[in-house]
């Protein structure tokens, strides 16, 4: 169990580090804001005695001079604070880029930033990261994956202006590498990369979107397929939910197709819940999970880890729908009716008690913000 301190802790990579720390049961990381970095003694006080400092803050886009100066100045500010620490951190880790030193303003600034930090901490862990993708990436900023996912979620088509090869790493794998996370979950600190062309990526994500708009699950043949699909789903939530199901009836009764998964696989199970009973109260890092109420009335509640806002979906067996749980959102289902609740669940993988990918987390916080009720 490590105590972390983060610069850039509220960014894309920073949020995934914080979520993984929550899953591991580590203390909430100490966040070093941009304004903090203007005051070296304040930062030094925050860094005293922590096990590991992750320097994630950086400038990725904008005017070339601002990008260059911003990355160098952020590293210099942290270096000044490190020199003032009464109890220096156990390790300092720099989230560098594979573009470091490539002759561009961004790449050269990253190389200078690494040298600046190494001057303050010769034992600096300089981790050079490739292109990262994952849930809740910022479109037009973090990665082309986030941009394509947002366009498709809005039912627009990605445009490929230049087809080139990409090497993509899921952000939770990068988080695990930077944190020194132990094995035991769906992350991989070796950072296995997906190599794909831009056009191939656009076509693949568009295929996922076409199937998913009809409630179908695409073939999730490997870990990158699962993570790309989860990245797309993060841009669909909550506006695209619940997903309606077609109910067919004849003299014999009724039929509803709750799950149509291309490529098969996964696990289906049902549960009953007495009035007032809550099930869930956890989140997943990679697992795809679907809820479908077949009988009774319920409310599905979700909260993105690290935030306060709760999204609620009233559902019932009279009008069957499905809600797929976005990864890294705590979720539960509450029987809100007077009768027994019958719910069907589907996951894309068979439950493995040794690696369950189920991390305890309450949906309702002690003093939550007003909830958003999804239509």
Automatic annotation (TrEMBL):
Keywords: Oxidoreductase
Domain NAD-dependent epimerase/dehydratase: 6-176
Gene Ontology MF, one: oxidoreductase activity
InterPro entries, per database record: CapF_C, Epimerase_deHydtase, NAD(P)-bd_dom_sf, RmlC-like_jellyroll, RmlC_Cupin_sf
EC number(s) given by UniProt: 1.1.1.367
Organism: Micromonospora purpureochromogenes
Signal peptide per UniProt: none
Protein name: UDP-2-acetamido-2,6-beta-L-arabino-hexul-4-ose reductase
Pfam families: Epimerase (PF01370), Polysacc_synt_C (PF14667)
Domain of life, per lineage: Bacteria
Domain Capsular polysaccharide assembling protein CapF C-terminal: 249-359
